[in-house]
Amino acid sequence: MKAIIYLRISDDRTGLQLGVSRQREDCERKAAERGLTVAAIETDNDLSAYSGKRRPGFENVLKSVKTGKAQVVIAWSLDRLQRNRRDELRLYEACRDQGAQLALVNGADLDFSTAAGRFVADALGSVARMEVEMKSDRQRRAAQQAAAAGKRAGGRRPFGYDADGMQVRPAEAAAVAAGFESFLAGMPLGEIARVWNEQGFVTGQARRGANAGQPSPWTRSSVRDVLSNPRYMGKRAHKGEIVADALWPALVPEETWQAAQAILTHRSGQVTPNAAKYLLSGIGKCGVCGGNVHAGANARRGVRGYRCAESTGHFARKAEPVEEYVAQVIAARLSLPDAGHLLTDSTKADLPQLRAEATALRQRLNSLATDFADGELTAQQLRAATARINEKLAAAEHAMADAGRVDVLGPLIKTKDVRAAWDTLRTSQRRAVIDILATVTLHPPGRGTRTFNPDTVSIEWKLA
User: Fold this and answer.
1) Strand partners, 74
2) From residue 257, how far is each of 250, 304, 400, 432 by CA, in Å?
3) What pLDDT score was predicted for residue 213?
């Protein structure tokens, strides 16, 4: 008789498939003891049967049974084969129709050609489903308790920390801090990913397919995951909500994290100042209509230009003289003796006070939920109180985000030669500085004008 071996492990954190390898050895030994010829071995690595995701290996097992290519299915245990009712029925019906058997390393063999065999298989399947559901309930409750206590509840090793998620890895921690700083300074997510890859850092996610087991490089998406994770400001999140102060050390200040969230949230899906190729595209304004400026072709081939995005008739002018003038004015402003006060806006509340206020508001939200559960609040009272607290919390987080964004100017203000520092910045970083500091408006240069006139470029300061 021919047999098909099925192997599955649902949580392969190392990507080395060690659990699958152990199952294979035991299953091959089972086949040899029964005198069976192994026709094929199917594997689903790091795929949970209970999750409902499609399992290619399992589908191939069903196909082999239905076509008669295998008369025996060998698995390490019944719960390796199925843990949801739908797959259980498909497997049992295929075995019943073809008279196939299930041979289990850790369990009794099941013969579907008899009523007794089918009854035992159905009973065992029900027990397996109950066990996984109970396990899921226990894990869910344990995760809630861990979150409330600020503890880690397992998972892949977080970037910047050891496997326990508590101890900091200095080199990675420095990369995380630099990533936040670069993002706030205008560097796109894709560029941060390239920097981390060039520095030899990898994600905790293992590759699949031809490069299975190899660490995955950083991408725009995985960098976004890091920058949006409250772990890095020392907070514990659960199901998308911050629920406690974490027990592990933070890698960035809370105001820095909040500033990054403001950019990620409010500019999501939009054409952002950080994503454009030229200095003023999308952030410069037209002096005629107030619309945005974009890069446009110049009458001379190879010469960059700017145009009004709303109408081609408003203005068209060379880009380089405008950009040079803007750079000179920005550098001059940041070189003044009073430029330091731009880093700490006196109109903002004290940052420690803001953090304390935000923590208190979050704790109050948790208390409201408890009061509602205890019957001390009606649903209407809960909604009204939650809305008021969320409004105050949003204001506090917005203030912290504003304070963090002001820090983008720090590397320029703290240097002795602002213009030299400006020239070393990427275009995306320069655009972020302009977007924070000023509004640049371009006016028509005048018909037939060939020389640059500074009066045709107005710069209005956002921060006094």
Assistant:
1) 5, 103
2) 10, 36, 9, 17
3) 62
* Max CA distance (Å), the chain: 97
Alpha carbon 377 to its chain centroid, in Å, reads 36
d(CA 125, CA 85): 8
Tokens of 281: 């595209």
Distance CA 235, CA 247 (A): 8
List the chain domain ranges.
2-141, 170-252, 271-464
Q: What's the CATH superfamily of 2-141?
A: Resolvase, N-terminal catalytic domain (3.40.50.1390)
Residues 326 and 337: their CA atoms lie apart, in Å, by 20
Structure tokens at 279: 């200095």
Which residue type sits at 74?
A: I
What pLDDT is stored for residue 264 in this prediction? 81
Hunting for tokens 């290619």 — which residue is that?
A: 56
Structure token digits, residue 134: 């109970």
Asked if residue 284 lies in contact with residue 441, where contact means CB atoms within 8 angstroms, the answer is: yes
Which residues are CB-neighbours of 314 under 8 A, at least 6 positions away?
A: 286, 288, 289, 291, 307, 308, 444
The structure's pTM equals 0.47
Give me the residues paired with residue 316 across strands.
Answer: 307
Give phi and psi for 244, each to the nearest 5: -165, 165
Strands of 101-104's sheet in order across: 37-45, 2-9, 72-75, 101-104, 110-111
Predicted local confidence at residue 90, as pLDDT? 83
* Whether the Cβ atoms of residue 343 and residue 409 lie closer than 8 Å to each other: yes
Which residue is associated with the tokens 């408006």? 441
Contact assessment for residue 419 and residue 331, using Cβ atoms and an 8 Å cutoff:
yes
DSSP strands (E only) in 220-361: 235-238, 241-245, 285-286, 293-297, 304-308, 316-318
Query: What are the backbone angles phi and psi of residue 344, rounded to the nearest 5°?
Result: -130, 90
Closest by CA to 6, choosing from 67, 51, 62, is 62
Write out residues in the chain with pLDDT < 70, as ranges.
Answer: 10-19, 46-53, 83-84, 113, 118, 121-133, 135-136, 139, 142, 185, 206-213, 266-276, 297-301, 340-360, 362-363, 366, 397-408, 410-411, 464
Rounded distance between C-alpha atoms, residue 101 and residue 439, angstroms: 75
For the record, the structure tokens of 283 come out as 């952030």
- Count of residues for the chain? 464
Q: How far apart are CA 16 and CA 213, in angstroms?
A: 5
Coil, strand or helix: which one is 22? helix
